[in-house]
Amino acid sequence: MRLRDKVVIVTGGGRGIGEAICKKLADEGARVVVADLILENAASTAEAIASRGGQALAVKVDVTKRVDVEAMVEQAKSTYGRIDVLVNNAGWDKVEPFLDSDEETWDKVISINLKGVLYTCKLVLPLMIEQGYGKVVNISSDAGRVGSSGEAVYSAAKGGVIAFSKTLAREMARYKINVNVVCPGPANTPLFEEITSYNPKISTALEKAIPFRRLAEPMDIANAVCYFASDEASYVTGQTLSVSGGLTMA
């Protein structure tokens, strides 16, 4: 098991990509803090992990609120004693032309996708420095690498995650802490289903554009996260990995 007894926090762990990440890391031996805005979703994931013989703790957290993030970190510490891996997966998007969007949507997109990452890193990294070990895996998006029509602010926020992670990787290297980024392409998730509900043609168009002719499944992303979270990637930091079925190759 690549993550035996490691303590992992996964934000947005209650469904979709986050749920798959939690299950994958638990299968590799990690003790998982399943953090989600909806506690029932987090509990469902934690129960599924327990039914497979793993260890998991469900925690309610709104990553846009520092007090919530502080409580999540404290709960993880008090339960497991340390935090070895942080996976920032919580995210949200609304697909629409930029000129049709409003400031309320901008604020929500930036707060969840970028500011939430700042909060978690600010509060978890000092613990990792103190224990002399840590891995941070931030989930960005190919939209943040190459842009995406209808996702201007989301692309900006996710691009910010990439730039932030690269800088953090440089600053944290002296403490032997790895910081890397996984960029999913279009994936078969509840959020994507929500987007297709008001953009019904987008799924078919994307499947035609992706060389593998399918959307990513959540476990495709989870497998990449597991690599970065493991000691197999101990000499890898500041890197951005696209998991997009070949939709983007640069």
TrEMBL record:
Signal peptide, first to last residue: none
| Source organism of the structure | Kyrpidia tusciae (strain DSM 2912 / NBRC 15312 / T2)
> Per the similarity annotation, which family is this?
Belongs to the short-chain dehydrogenases/reductases (SDR) family.
Q: Is Oxidoreductase tagged as a keyword?
A: yes
Q: What is a GO molecular function of this protein?
A: oxidoreductase activity
The protein's matches in InterPro entries, at most eight in alphabetical order, are given as: KR_dom, NAD(P)-bd_dom_sf, Sc_DH/Rdtase_CS, SDR, SDR_fam
In this chain the Ketoreductase domain maps to: 6-188
Show the taxonomic lineage. Bacteria, Bacillati, Bacillota, Bacilli, Bacillales
Q: Is the Oxidoreductase keyword given for this protein?
A: yes
**PANTHER family per the record?**
3-OXOACYL-(ACYL-CARRIER-PROTEIN) REDUCTASE, 3-OXOACYL-[ACYL-CARRIER-PROTEIN] REDUCTASE FABG
Q: Spell out the SMART domains in the cross-references.
A: PKS_KR (SM00822)
Kindly list the residue ranges recorded as spanning the membrane: none
Q: Name one GO biological process term.
A: bile acid metabolic process
Keywords, sorted A to Z: Oxidoreductase
Q: Under what name is this protein listed?
A: Short-chain dehydrogenase/reductase SDR
